[in-house]
Amino acid sequence: MSLFALLADYTLQNVAIGAAILGAVSGVLGSFAVLRQQSLVGDALSHAALPGVCLGFLVAGTRDLGWIMAGALGSGGLAALAILGLTRFSRLKTDAAIGAALSIFFAVGVVLLTVIQRRGGASQAGLETFLFGQAAAILRQDLWIMGAIAAAALGAVALFWKEFKLVTFDPVFARTLGLPVAVLEVALTVMVALAVVVGLQMVGVVLMAAMVIAPAVAARQWTRRLGPMVWLAAAIGIGSGIAGALVSALGPGLATGPLIVLSASAAVAVSILFAPGRGIVWEAVERARERRALRGRQVLATLLRLAREHDDPSYPAEQGMLDLYHGLGTRAALERLEGRGQVARTAHMPGEGRHWRLTPAGREEAERVLAEFGGERG
Amino acid sequence: MAEFTAEAPQGPLHEPGLALHVEDLTVSYHGRPVLWDIDLNVPPGVMAAVVGPNGAGKSTLIKSVLELVPATAGHVYLFGKPYAGVRKRIAYVPQRSSVDWDFPTTALDVVMMGRYGHLGWLRRPGAEERRRAVAALEEVGIADLAGRQISQLSGGQQQRVFLARALVQEADLYFLDEPMAGVDATTERAIVRLLKGLRDRGKTLIVVHHDLQTVREYFDWIVILNVRVIAQGSVAAAYTAENLRRAYGGQISLLRGLDRPGDAPVTGEASGA
């Protein structure tokens, strides 16, 4: 299929639009969850959607997406309240509360799922697709539901931006200003459940947590302000959604949901490695540069001390002696300094190793270094 | 839109001449009293130190006054009213470690958060809030760091950001929880100068403080705490070796200077429990 034919394909259009909606809403709400150090709440809420999916199906009697979404939101919200309640009113720590809610709700969901399957009936076919998602089953009318939920959630974030930001950064201070912090925190958590509901059909309950966490984690690496981070997380979410949809259309049998999650994970990998300021590779490069600069300064300072001890401003120091003094090869450092005109090779006794002396520029720099870092070695 | 919470109905004023009036306040945590039967009076216009050994309940006192931890019993009045009625006149500087400084935001942004209470729901901070925040950053001496991401500030600079956030609240009563903890000497001097300036403009400051050596130099009012109130009053009257011994017990070794008249400084620092 050519790219044009792909883009004109009705099913693919639906899938791509749905994936984009999902990416936007989970990127934005995931940002707040990640910054509140509640990434795992997303995991618990998505697993907790399963019993709601089954109950919605039982109530409707068919695979009606409206009922299923309502059920998922209900059980997700219940799990959110259970986690908040357990941490506030029991001595359980957050991680234990999250773990308990996740496993109990998911276990109930699996039990309900098997009960429904045992009862049989043609209409129950495909309920297990909510475990891993089945994007191709998405209809145009489903998109309207997903879009409406996303619009409501994103609208709430835009409206209460300042309040959500403060509650995320400093909830204690927020309380002293009179903000209803508990209400706002519940709202943020329940909205994560909304994001999960949007992703039910596309990605499924098992992998949905990744969509909540990944775009936010990736975006965090690139920016130092909340606004840009949230926009970027939305963009990464949309990008991963569309990328996953397109890649899955390239070959038969490629599942869309996992591909979306893999695209988002790729964005995380790139961001964690390469983002300026925070990326691992970036930091390693910085450290190596600093180490080289430090080595150069140390060698300069040593040359200056030797020159002072011998009362000879251009005292020729043998490279082997410098190596011994620093316990490392100093040749690379000396050659870099030579490139900057701070040291020069000098002829000494024939038959001896290479010798180096400070140039006037090098002496100036060395004196500055010694003055700055003191004579802790001298 | 109005502020975040409606003004509480005006009851009769209770001790309106005091900035802070606490009656029979008891706070317990898991059945263990952290604060026991606290009666406290702080007049307006003083700079008061709250001192006491580790676990004495110094931070808890501030947090319970601000209704951040629930009190088991007791009443708190600020300028004669319950806290809900005077929120806008109160500013709070929490311990620096209470937030995640890796949060993606700038120093200026954090300071502007001090205006959120005045803005109320839905209104976004604008040019006016920005102007006030910049002025506050100037006052604490780090206006040049306004655009800096907060994780790239030193501990002392982070403390100054928190102070600036309290300044833009334009309060009459400031609660500060260990503002001098873990900051360098320059920052400590700057903070003290700033706090004294606030006091000289008639503001009241209540400061949890850990360094007994500097009490006489910095403060004019003192509350010595160890679960109960051991002593309170002007530094001249209440800051005695006897009172400190009662609060710190064996934890303090070098109090000799206090016994003599003539206000020799206390030379020891409270050691950790």
Biggest interface and residues each:
A-B, 27 and 30 residues
Element string of chain A (H = helix, E = strand): HHHHHHHHHHHHHHEHHEEH
Oligomer: heterodimer
Percent helix of chain B, as a range, is 25-40%
C-alpha Rg of chain B, in Å?
19 Å
Binned, the helix content of chain A reads: over 70%
Q: What's the β-strand tally of chain A?
A: 3
Main sheet strand line-up of chain B: 5-6-7-3-8-9
- Total beta-strand segments of chain B: 9
> Which strand order do you get reading across the main beta sheet of chain A?
1-3-2
| Overall body shape of chain B | globular
User: Which structural category do the helix and sheet elements of chain A fall into?
Assistant: mainly alpha
Report the uncertain regions of chain B.
259-273
CA(first)-CA(last) distance of chain B = 49 Å
Describe the protein's architecture and organization.
The complex is a heterodimer of chains A (378) and B (273). With 378 residues, chain A is an all-alpha fold. Chain A has 17 helices and three strands. Chain A has helices at 3-8, 10-35, 39-60, 65-89, 94-119, 129-132, 140-159, 161-169, 171-176, 181-199, 208-220, 226-250, 256-274, 280-309, 319-326, 331-339, 360-373, and strands spanning 317-318, 343-346, 355-358. In chain A, a hairpin with an 8-residue loop joins β2 (343-346) and β3. In chain A, α2 (10-35) packs antiparallel against α10 (181-199) and α8 (161-169) crosses α10. The longest helix of chain A is centred in the C-terminal third of the chain and has 30 residues, at 280-309. Chain B is α/β, with parallel strands linked by helices. A six-stranded mixed sheet of chain B has the order 5-6-7-3-8-9, with helices on both faces. A three-stranded antiparallel sheet of chain B has the order 2-1-4, with helices on one face. In chain B, α4 (127-139) packs across α5 (155-167). The longest helix of chain B has 16 residues, at 185-200. The relative contact order of chain B is 0.17. Mean pLDDT of chain B is 85; it is low at 259-273. The interface between A and B is medium-sized, with 27 and 30 residues.
